[in-house]
Known about the structure:
- By secondary structure, this protein is mainly β.
- The chain has no helices and 16 strands.
- Strands 1, 4, 7, 8, 10, 11 and 13 form a seven-stranded parallel β-sheet that branches. A five-stranded parallel β-sheet has the order 2-5-9-12-14, with no helix packed on it. A two-stranded parallel ribbon has the order 3-6.
- The relative contact order is 0.13.
Amino acid sequence: SIGGGICNVFGRLRCVNTEISSNSAAGSSIGAAIFNYGTNDLVNCLIYANVMTSPQAGNSGVVDNFALAGGRLSVVNCTIVSNGWATGSGLRTASPSLTVATNSIFWWNANDDLNGAFSPAYCAIQTTDAFWTNGLNGCFTASPLFTEPAAQNYRLTAGSPCKDAGFNLAGMAAALDLDGNRRVSGDRVDIGAYEFPDPSRGTVFKIQ
């Protein structure tokens, strides 16, 4: 009932370029995909199709951060999407935990994508909340325009507002996305687990 995919208790866990999908938690459940009670970093992760049958207290998240003071959950360039259950949220943090969400997409997650007192930055979030403002700090509610969500293809299309809309963090220029492509293909990093390939960065041939 706790951590259907990953359960991190008092540990330090780092997930990079990882897909976490189709996990479940039953009963009075917390964290169908991930339950964190320590320190957990998620980078370039795709988290989808995880299900809680009866979320604890009706507000726990598919990614749930319930760490003690000093514990931390960091979510960078992740796509948390299409996780289904009756109530709950995509990502939840509970005081006194610290949750940092940057350059990430939260979409189609039950009745609330985010739950808790933290400030997301440069994120696409479908549901609105009192603790963040649409259009400020790089966050917005415009659709990410996924390629083919019905087939679990959550890559960005050419017209996606997530393209070149993120914040370039240190070391990102040398990093790779979930597909193994260059993480920053334009001037700014894309929001989500996948970078849209920039054709202008390819090889140029001149034919006469």
